[in-house]
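To: structure subgroup
Subject: Chain for Friday's discussion

All,

I'm putting the inputs and outputs inline so they're searchable in the archive.
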Amino acid sequence: MEYPRALVDKGLHLMYFLRRKSRPQTLFFYGAVTLVRRGYVFLEHFHNSVREAVEPVLAGMGLSLVEMTLGRRKGTTRVSVVIYRQGGVGVDDCAEVSGMLLPRLETIEAMGDVSLEVSSPGIERTLRHPGEYAIFTGRGVRILAGTETEWQGGIIQRVDGGTLWLKSGREIKGFAVADIRKARLDYSVEVEEAKNAV
């Protein structure tokens, strides 16, 4: 078994990178919609198959899958996953997930050589899909909603009925998820709320 080729720790954004070459080059075609982005070929059906293999493993470890990207380049299937749990994710968590996922990914037909990257979301992650609001319940966030030109900050309380509820001080405000133009995690909101609670 190869050892990790790179272990990166930049601030609170952690990354664990593991690559293993064990099979000859193969190409995969599933007749699904093919998406091309930055020279990579993304196959929707194949992406779904990999997600179905990854999510149960993470759920069993008490982790949420925040984001997964998948591509094929120069004979290597590149898989990148962003994971999260309440209380945060450390380097050891990323390493453990890599060790659990890599053998499982290698059993998927036509994966070929596998390059796996596991990382944490980082403290200022841009939230890319509505499902992330529920994953990051309890975290500080800033959003641009509707026609507002100023960022609204607060702690994510819950998401229900298409509404995101943020707590700021003693006030709880609701924002329609469909109206949110931009959103990002913001640790300073959590610090400010902690100060106000004292």
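Points worth raising on Friday:
The longest strand covers residues 64-73.
The CA atoms of residues 74 and 187 lie 39 Å apart.

D.
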